[in-house]
What does this fold into?
Amino acid sequence: MSGVLTVAFLKAAIIAGTPLLFATVGEIITEKVGNLNLGVEGMMLMGAVIGFQVAHVTSNPLLALIAAALAGAMGALIYAFLAVSLRANQVVTGLALTIFGTGFSSFIGKGLIGIKLSDEFSAYFSSIKIPGLGDIPVIGEIFFNHDILVYLGYLTAILTGLYMYNTRKGLNMRAVGENPAAADAASVRITAYKYAHILLGGALCGIGGAYLSLVQVPVWQENITAGRGWIAVALVIFAAWNPYKALIGSYFFGGLDIIGFRLQGTGVQISQYFVDMLPYLMTIFVLVLVSLKKDRKNAPPQGLSVPYFREER
Amino acid sequence: MRFRVVKKPDISQKQYLLIMLAAILLALVTSGLFILLLGFNPLSVYKTMLLGAFGTEYRIQQTVVAAIPLIIISLGIAIAFKMKFWNIGGEGQVIMGAFCASYLALNYQHLPRPLLLSLMIVAGFIGGALWGLIPAFLKAKWDTNETIVTLMLNYVALKWVTYLQYGPWKDPASLGFPKIANFAENAILPKLFGVHVGWVIALVLTVIMYIFMNYSKKGFEIAVIGESINTARYAGVNIFRTIIFTMLLSGGLCGLAGMIQASAVNNTLSVEVAGGVGYTAIITAWLGALKPHWIVVVSVLFAAMVQGGSYIQTAFGISAASASIIQAMILFFVLGSDFFTKYKVVIESNLLADRKGAK
It folds into this structure.
């Protein structure tokens, strides 16, 4: 393989796609119970900063990740309370959460700017080659020689898919998003389902953000997510609310994210700033493509962004 | 004993206002607890914020300067939101408006001042309008999700101006420092009563938009689409054209704000020209209930909060980011309070009695 599409590039694309994957799967879970949470960017930032702060103080990777997940879930809790219990407009509530999360992370992160996590901490996230699978030529190097969180990403997407499509609870969860009145009639506890999944989705967004600050960058910088939360929201549509397809979308966009460095290496004469536009332009392009071919299989959950009110059914 | 939510009959404007005020007060109390947690006295912090925003004539002027773009962008966002077109691309539309106006400012500075400024205003409007046209066309034609498209275009616009600032438009006289040359005097908006004339533009636009939204056919059609696109279709509204028109107007207003910022405030084009004001305007538009006159009030309050926020940074060493946390907090509480204008919570055992009472 020559040019840009080298094994090293594809491997790096997986790493760059991992934060997108966590956030995309998180948002799929959220939207599948009928709630459009546009606060992904905010929850990622909350997870990123809290994870980094805890990592900086304790040097304990597990604590840092748990804290990041909790921070994301906290953001989601604000959203859930407003959008589910108080039936606030979901779009605006999500936007407010993003604004809040951005302010929160720059507030907490004020004193952290430029700080790098210790080498011992980063060592927890060094690559682990999976025995057997990691020895397959090319494929093994691209997919099975990564840090533990990349594997957790695979696992999250697959487990979410199994849960959604192969379990009773997963069926209930999809029913809540498609037709809450029918689910309610079948005595599924709508509010509990919504809260649980929105919080879980938020926790995954928090972990996605923490992957950026703990592993991918390991130096704190303001607005570390740089719009990745929004790309994740678009990826949900691209993946047609299917966590397995989210794997493909996330790694594809991970590749776009880092293609600039690679192109420069090959001596292509193009401004860095135009290359930086690529993920954003591609997101628009992909959205247009998806909207061009509308079919029922790729449709959003029927009850998306409609608050459920039993008395109105 | 269980709690239950029931619908409430429509409430009066006075009750509505009371609930909103209560929400803002609660938000300030909650933020106060947060300040207390940081180890400061919330009352003195709030007082210092007020002083920072309105304490001297100069500070009042600075607050007005900060309110001008907020008002104009919020008006633009409000008209789109009225149609339930979630334009969160104000930031990008501001940048592209500023870009188009700056092109004239940098290349035609020999033109007479009134002519050049008028052309820049038109260019700013067109720049923002065209940037708003992209998501509008995609939405109207293929129902492409406008929230994400408008947001992605913010980043594209930002990268575009970064490219100009670090590349072809870099001022050769700046000794390698990446900045675009300052505008000539001709391209800078004049001042009136110590503040650039943007405030007059903002107020005139507020009146125009008030009349447009409340008394024009088009304004009514936009509101109908927002309420129900099917109703609008049955009523014979041309959906495609109305979406395009609304976003040209929405983006155009944002672009105009970009021209004002570049010309009067920064005196040049830079990546900082929007500086997040496109996002803050989403909050102010919503808090102003998408009504032009309320938007002016809310925008001035928010501008005061931003000015006060940067002032407490110097006075107390509290990060200016705390201002944006307080802003989001107010938005959360107002969003939540909307519930209490539509529903009420009753205790289950009293439900029957309550229903009888309603009849």
About this structure: Residues 114 and 186 of chain B are 8 Å apart (CA to CA). Chain B is about 75% helix and 5% strand. Chain B touches chain A through 46 residues (CB under 8 Å).
